[in-house]
Design brief:
With 508 residues, the protein is of the alpha/beta class. It has 16 helices and 14 strands. It has helices at 9-22, 34-48, 52-70, 73-81, 86-114, 120-138, 163-187, 194-211, 235-238, 244-256, 282-292, 342-349, 387-390, 414-429, 475-479, 482-503; strands at 218-219, 224-230, 263-265, 296-307, 310-320, 326-328, 369-371, 374-380, 399-404, 433-437, 443-445, 451-454, 461-467, 470-471. Helix 3 runs antiparallel to helix 5 (86-114), helix 5 runs antiparallel to helix 6 (120-138) and helix 7 packs antiparallel against helix 8.
């Protein structure tokens, strides 16, 4: 077998770090989606003949580059707006990035330990399944952090056609398979059949593209005219005493200036008061104005309620207009909306100044909010990163909506990455998604994940457009992540069994 790479082991380690750091360029806003496959292919080549310890180290370096670049926006949230000291912020983020990097490190160790000596197909299938299982575990364990799962990078590529069938992790599996096929082709580049590996990649992409041609949904009523209100309120102003009335007036004026809108959506926590703190008659006046204009309004607001003798705080969306409803955020952000292990980590919050960092979760299963005769499946901010949770509103919901306070991220990658995930949710569920934010990216997303309309960032703006309510059930809505997880387990187990049965002792 020819030498794979003409680099010293230390330089191969450095190459793993560089490949990981380049991977975020495959995601929004750069969106060079083939780069995701190229970066993973480099890592897989570096893993193929490495000992378990070395493979784990290269996985750790790859992950540190991936998350250190791709999730660098956390520094903005914690230091710039959370006012955590710079040195402490850097220390906390290094620990967090190392933790996230443990997932690719474990994949590297397991594939080297369990698949060493395996035939090409056993290794290709095994390493792809292990990589995707690790992504799923990262999105589930310890409340989950699914950011930068490889499947999201493909939202504009042919592999996205698998999303309505298997969700984002099914797309991740296709990315990993493509990378493993190319890696194996690189290993065997001097052999006559080298182009068969490239042909296998092309065949996989063709199958995914064809799968995306299946249409699972149909209209469920007349189109709705929507208006998404982007208030562009700086965080420094939003929670300062004396600013609340002017912020309410801004949103109210921008809303009432709309004529003919069926649905108006305000961002997360657009109302800078608790619901019970609002001046008497504000919501009643907004209700009368909405009824007079034949519109429904969804607005982000904070609530506090006494439950079993204790005051609980909720990040909520309420409806004003033809029907009254409420959605309370269920999947809260660790360290941002609640503190895990409060007894041990309470010292950390002394250095953070994050409003509403002691929230309670709403119920896991909440009915869609009714607006203009249609059911809207709600999510708030971070929740749209969890496909199986967003799909709980389907098939009953005919439209999906997410509201976000994205001023926390400043001029970083985060808002674009979140819009990319919202696009994946629309594609998985076969529903249009409306994304209403404070500073951008505010957008209307089609049921195939395409951006139909988008507002400019950091400007007061009302984005208007038309959305079509849809009904129908995609396979992903029906089965969630269960199908792909069991598929991954079977592939991984089958690959290991094949290596044990047929591969032991064979030359590589």
């Amino acid at each position: 077998m020819p030498q794979q790479v003409l680099l010293t082991p230390a330089r191969q380690d450095l190459l793993a770090l560089v490949a990981g750091a380049a991977l975020p360029l495959a995601f929004s806003p750069v969106s060079w989606y083939p780069l995701a496959i190229a970066c993973l292919a480099v890592l897989f080549v570096l893993w193929r003949d490495a000992a378990p310890g070395r493979a784990a180290w290269r996985g750790l370096l790859f992950g540190f580059g991936q998350f250190g670049v791709g999730v660098s926006w956390l520094y903005v949230a914690l230091h710039t707006y959370g006012q955590m000291p710079a040195a402490l912020t850097a220390f906390v983020l290094v620990l967090f990035f190392v933790f996230l990097s443990c997932y690719p490190a474990l994949v590297g160790w397991f594939q080297a330990r369990l698949l060493a000596g395996a035939g090409p197909w056993a290794w290709i299938l095994g390493v792809s399944a292990l990589w995707t299982l690790a992504e799923w575990l990262r999105g589930w364990l310890f409340t989950g952090f699914p950011w930068l799962a490889a499947g999201y990078s493909q939202i504009d590529g042919p592999l996205a056609g698998l999303a309505p069938w298997l969700g984002v992790y099914g797309v991740s599996l296709a990315v990993a398979l493509s990378a493993a096929l190319l890696a194996e082709g690189w290993r065997r580049r001097n052999q006559p059949a080298v182009w068969s590996w490239v042909a296998a990649v092309a065949g996989l992409w063709l199958v995914a593209w064809a799968a995306g041609r299946v249409d699972w949904v149909r209209p469920a009523g007349a189109p709705l005219h929507v208006a998404l209100v982007q208030g562009d309120v700086p965080l420094s102003q939003k929670w300062s005493p004396g600013s609340g009335r002017s912020i309410l007036r801004r949103y109210t004026d921008m809303t009432l200036a709309q004529h003919g809108g069926d649905l108006v959506v305000w961002p997360e926590a657009a109302v800078p008061y608790f619901r019970d703190q609002l001046e008497h008659g504000f919501l009643a006046g907004l209700q009368r104005a909405a009824e007079a204009r034949h519109m429904d309004i969804l607005l982000g607001i904070l609530e506090r309620r006494r439950v079993h003798g204790r005051v609980r705080y909720y990040n909520s969306v309420i409806s004003v207009g033809s029907a009254q409803g409420v959605y309370r955020k269920h999947h809260l952000v660790p360290f941002g909306e609640y503190l895990p292990f409060a007894a041990e980590l309470g010292w950390m919050m002394n250095d953070l100044r994050i409003p509403m960092s002691d929230l309670s979760p709403g119920p896991a299963h909440q009915p869609p909010i009714q607006v203009d005769g249609q059911a809207v499946g709600m999510s708030i901010c971070y929740e749209d990163a969890f496909g199986a949770e967003v799909m709980r509103a389907l098939p009953r919901a005919t439209l999906l909506a997410n509201v976000t306070e994205d001023a926390w991220y400043g001029h970083s990658l985060a808002s674009f990455q979140q819009m990319e995930m919202a696009r994946m949710r629309a594609l998985e569920g076969g529903r249009q998604m409306i994304l209403s934010t404070n500073t951008g990216v505010t957008a209307i997303i089609g049921s195939h994940g395409q951006v139909v309309a988008r507002a400019p960032q950091f400007r007061r703006w009302v984005l208007t457009g038309t959305v079509v309510p849809l009904q129908g059930v995609t396979p992903y809505v029906r089965y969630g992540n269960r199908l792909v997880v069991w598929l991954l387990v079977l592939i991984a187990a089958g690959s290991v069994a094949a290596r044990v049965r047929y591969g032991r002792g064979r030359p590589r």
